[in-house]
């Protein structure tokens, strides 16, 4: 009888602990659900909050002016059709003379109007492009400014390399 009573107490204790464990698990799950519902922000809400904190008025944002430059002087403007891969690499990575590449030198002379505009935009202290909100934005949509920006940088480097070779050091430094 004593043994039967011990089994019954043991069974009651096991049931009690099992129910206690289930109750604790349910309480933890309920806590996380409530926490998420009350305090959790979605990734989109977090990005939106970051964007708002970094927002710059259009009048102070160089990105707005760069976008206008990229519309006015697109990639084909910044990289002429006659520029072969070899000439592109040479003039981008080393100093070059107008005598060596007269067509390119002439092209730069004809397109000097871009320099004052670039210099004006470069005086702005703030430049903010909207954050990509999705994987597709990163690899498809929201990078449309990167290629023209690269071409603009190469345009300036190529021109500065020519200025250095021809002794126009101050102009090269400005670029």
- State the helical fraction: over 70%
Strand percent estimate? under 5%
Helical element count? 10
Number of strands: 0
What is the rounded distance between the termini? Answer: 99 Å
Major sheet description = none
Approximate shape: elongated
**H-E order:** HHHHHHHHHH
Structural class: mainly alpha
Mean pLDDT: 81
Q: Poorly predicted ranges (pLDDT <50, ≥5 residues)?
A: none
Assembly type? single chain
Radius of gyration: 32 Å
Kindly give the count of domains.
2
Walk me through the structure.
The protein is mainly α. The chain folds into two domains: 2-40; 55-174, no CATH class. Helices cover 71% and strands 0% of the residues. It contains ten helices and no strands. It has helices at 2-39, 43-54, 62-72, 75-78, 85-93, 102-110, 114-122, 135-141, 146-165, 169-174. Helix 5 crosses helix 9. The longest helix is centred in the N-terminal third of the chain and has 38 residues, at 2-39. The termini are far apart. The model has no long low-confidence stretch (mean pLDDT 81).
Concise description?
The protein has two domains: 2-40; 55-174, no CATH class. 71% of the residues lie in helices and 0% in strands.
Features:
175 residues, mainly alpha, 2 domains, 10 helices, elongated
């Amino acid at each position: 009888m004593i043994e039967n009573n011990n089994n019954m107490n043991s069974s009651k204790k096991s049931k009690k602990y099992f129910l206690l464990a289930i109750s604790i698990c349910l309480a933890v799950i309920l806590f996380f659900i409530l926490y998420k519902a009350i305090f959790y922000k979605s990734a989109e809400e977090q990005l939106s909050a970051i964007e708002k904190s970094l927002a710059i008025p259009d009048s102070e944002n160089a990105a707005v002016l760069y976008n206008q430059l990229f519309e006015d002087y697109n990639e084909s403007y910044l990289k002429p059709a006659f520029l072969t891969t070899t000439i592109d690499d040479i003039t981008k990575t080393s100093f070059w003379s107008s005598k060596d590449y007269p067509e390119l030198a002439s092209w730069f002379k004809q397109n000097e109007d871009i320099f004052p505009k670039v210099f004006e935009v470069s005086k702005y202290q703030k430049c903010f492009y909207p954050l990509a909100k999705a994987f597709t934005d990163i690899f498809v949509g929201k990078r449309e400014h990167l290629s023209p920006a690269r071409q603009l940088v190469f345009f300036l480097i190529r021109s500065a390399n020519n200025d250095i070779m021809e002794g126009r050091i101050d102009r090269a430094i400005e670029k």
